[in-house]
Design goal:
Number of domains: 1
Distance between the termini: 54 Å
Mean pLDDT: 78
Number of helices: 2
Shape: elongated
Low-confidence stretches: 28-33
Number of strands: 3
Largest sheet: 3 strands, antiparallel
Amino acid sequence: MPMSHSHRRLACWLAAALLILAGPALGQRDGRGGGMTADQAAEQVRQQTGGRVLRVDRTGSGYRVKVLTPAGEVREIEVAAERR
């Protein structure tokens, strides 16, 4: 029995809502299980340096976090994705 137009529309809306809600969680995990997110790497560097995080880039083994220190220096700090 074919799906009615209203049921098809409801299914599309539900699928879209699930993708929107799951998107941030799926996009920020490193995909290896047990690893940290980009947000967690940024927070770790912010706490270590007291600076303002400018950018976070994924690398092969973790994240490269660019931070502006309180002294006005821009530094790049490597953070391993795997938690120890």
